Amino acid sequence: MNILAAVILIYMSEEQTFWLLEVLCDRLLPGYCSPTMHGTLLDQRIFESLVTRCLPVISDHFQVVDVQLSVASLPWFLSLYINSMPMVFAFRIADCFFCMDPKVLFQSKAILKINGENYCRYKTTGVS
Q1: Stretch (H or E) spanning 9
Q2: How many CA atoms lie less than 13 Å away from 89 in the CB half-sphere?
Q3: How many domains does the chain have?
Q4: Position 25 in a domain
Q5: Residues 116, 55 contacting (CB under 8 angstroms)
Q6: Residue 88 lies in a domain
Q7: Strands 122-123 and 126-127, sheet pairing
Q8: Is 15 within a domain?
Q9: Is residue 37 classed as helix, strand or coil in its secondary structure?
């Protein structure tokens, strides 16, 4: 949450940032900041299931190279993409997240679809 807090502090006062983080942790992303992180783990399983269903080639590739998709996607979810892409795009995702619904996080499968060719270029023995 330190990354989120730092970015929010750019635009809000300390008190506003505190209350926004409270809403994030308790209402919008329940279980993300708990000791067990059960909300995060559940969302990662859902995301992996979506990728398996919607992007089977990429899902198969991650299995072939023995990499869990959550290794790549967990930081995206935890930071609301703020540390994963240029700030202009990350702020647009954050706007959608706050205006629409936390389900926006699951649309990151589009990132995998757009960059899928780059991910699948690597085989278990190196670059093809």
Answers
A1: helix 2-11
A2: 8
A3: 1
A4: no
A5: yes
A6: yes
A7: antiparallel
A8: no
A9: coil
